[in-house]
Amino acid sequence: MAVLIRSVEEGSPAYKAGIPKNSSLISINKNEIFDVLDYRFYQNEKRLKLKVEANGKIKSYRIEKAEYDELGLIFDTYLMDEQRSCKNKCVFCFIDQLPKGMRDTLYFKDDDSRLSFLFGNYITLTNITEHEIERIIKLHISPINISVHTTNPELRCKMMNNRFAGDALKVLYRLAEAGIAINCQLVLCPDYNDGDELRRSLTDLTALSTVQSIAAVPVGLTAHREGLAELKPFNKATASEVLDILNEFSDLTLEKYGKRRVFGSDEFYILSERQIPVPSYYEDFLQLENGVGMWSLFLSEATDAIENYFADTILEKERKITVATGESAYPLIKNIVDISTKKWHNLYCNVKQIKNNFFGGHITVTGLITGGDLIEQLKGEELGENLLISSSMLRHEKDKFLDDITVRQVENALNVKVLIIENDGFEFVSNLLGN
Q1: Over the chain, what is the mean pLDDT?
Q2: In a domain? residue 85
Q3: pLDDT given at position 390
Q4: How many other C-beta atoms lie within 10 A of the C-beta of residue 223?
Q5: Which residues, 6+ apart, have CB-to-CB distance to 131 below 8 Å?
Q6: Predicted TM-score (pTM) of this structure
Q7: Domain around 170
Q8: Angle formed by the axes of helices 407-414 and 371-378, to 10°?
Q9: What values do phi and psi take at 276, rounded to 5?
Q10: Among 340, 363, 371, 396, which residue is least crowded by beta carbons within 10 Å?
Q11: Domain boundary residue among 244, 268, 291?
Q12: 20 in a domain, yes or no?
């Protein structure tokens, strides 16, 4: 197999070696190149021999460069081939619950092992090839993020609507045996994989020394589940039962490995109305993207900013602003704002709790708030000089909300300058103060 070289960066080692654009890269140091992982791993050596095909002829190029320096080859796509889509039809799949009429890219389900390593995406292992398994082990690509959901093979097939989903668990054990670090995700659905099934999964996973973290998150249910399996949301009682099991296994891993490895997402604590643990509980915060420890870390960062870094800051003039947040994060944001306005008496900040009408159902997280809901619920309000929103509301390019409304459209509709804040407590306080 060969991958197309679309262009070569001017001045790069590949450019100086004379590698032509629109040629095909076959191998590096006799290692065949299939995609971005092969390329990024094998280009790191100081001395390289590239085999390249151009105009039907194969030619070798020898290159010497500093270790880890980029070769300078540019390909059609980042992955250097097509992104792989998911073959499952999970009963809890959020993408299947999206309303109609959104942009096509939002309906694409990825299940690509390369994205797990490069960007932290979670994979189900039902779409992984033998070549990829061997490569992960050979190159010791680590960590790998795996959507496990349950270690019961029959139940996994049922939940994922894939008759191969149970057999795919063998890959997880194979990777663990090879010493590959693994982060696991369990999307929990009441009466499916909670209770005794959750205990079974945690027993199996915590027995594997290379499983460095396990995150349990509650199923997210929108109002657009027509024709899908009937699922019910977690409530205070059932969320509490889940946390009891998770905390039990968290304590066991602390005793066995010297670190906690089992965690419930912040949403389970909010649903059960329990106090979220202190930052030290979350060890290395390996599951922040799953909403595990995000509340605790954010509060700690914001408190430190207020009490230490900005302790001597003086607001020389009155500042009036608004913060828009989701229902679940509202108590956290309101608490930080209240502390801030007590310290800085000429800071006036109104915290607006935005209800998710676009997705409906039981969706309360900030990251799924749309531009349309912001406009609808804040129209006519006195918002002050700035509206602060979380960057999690926007797609990766940071220019549009999930409903394709742009930041500029929100600003024009609400007649206010929007400030986009990363999920960082320090940055949040800094922007409250107008820095």
Answers
A1: 91
A2: no
A3: 96
A4: 15
A5: 34
A6: 0.84
A7: 95-291
A8: 10
A9: -75, 135
A10: 396
A11: 291
A12: yes
